[in-house]
Amino acid sequence: MKLLLVLSCLLAACLAQKPHRCTSPPLLSGELTVSTQNEKFFVFAKYLYDALGQKIRLMELVTYDNKTFTYDGLLLFREGIMYEIHYDNKTCKKLPLKADFHPMEIPKDASLLGQAILGSSSGPGQGLLVNTWTGELPENGEKYMSTFTEFGCIPVSSVVHTKDYGWMMSSLFNNVIGITNPNLLYPPSFCLDEKLDIEEEPVDFHSFFQKMR
């Protein structure tokens, strides 16, 4: 039995020597943090990710310039709309969304930085095998570094160099494949009659975070 375990571990190690580009499961939920190099901005959020419908829901606790508040945003990329949702007074704001949907995946032009084990390799279950990739975002040339698990292609962290914040780091954890409450990816009933605010500047990924200030 011990010999079989050793051989299995060796086989797993050999298979892990060739990291490959991958795409995350299309439905994910979990939690994340976002922090910035200038230390002015910090987000803790629960997230829902739907690559099939191109939707993202972020329910967040935000700290900006030592001020803390909550924010709830639903991004509908296919429709080009974002909702700011306020359950406390049952109001919402409907905004134009100009950002393209980017699935959680390793782009074809990404370069492998390396493979590592988070935690320890001293015993079974003590470590997590991950691959880290680097590249530049096609729409603006911003440099990024993303880490995904070798098995399952689950996102672990991402670092992007931005003009407004310097390095912006996202860490994802408590990830679960699937979405237990799909209704959260639709605007609540009190938002359905809301008119699109065409005078608002269209929201993209970076301005989405700036709107939380």
Describe the 3D structure:
It is a single chain. By secondary structure, the protein is mostly beta strands. 9% of the residues lie in helices and 46% in strands. The chain has two helices and eleven strands, in the order αβββββββββββα. It has helices at residues 2-15, 205-210, and strands spanning 27-36, 41-50, 55-64, 67-76, 81-86, 91-96, 111-119, 127-136, 143-149, 155-162, 166-177. An eleven-stranded antiparallel β-sheet has the order 6-5-4-3-2-1-11-10-9-8-7, with no helix packed on it. The longest helix has 14 residues, at 2-15. The model is unreliable at 1-8 (pLDDT under 50).
Topology diagram in text:
Layout: H1 2-15, E1 27-36, E2 41-50, E3 55-64, E4 67-76, E5 81-86, E6 91-96, E7 111-119, E8 127-136, E9 143-149, E10 155-162, E11 166-177, H2 205-210
Antiparallel strand pairs: 1-2, 1-11, 2-3, 3-4, 4-5, 5-6, 7-8, 8-9, 9-10, 10-11
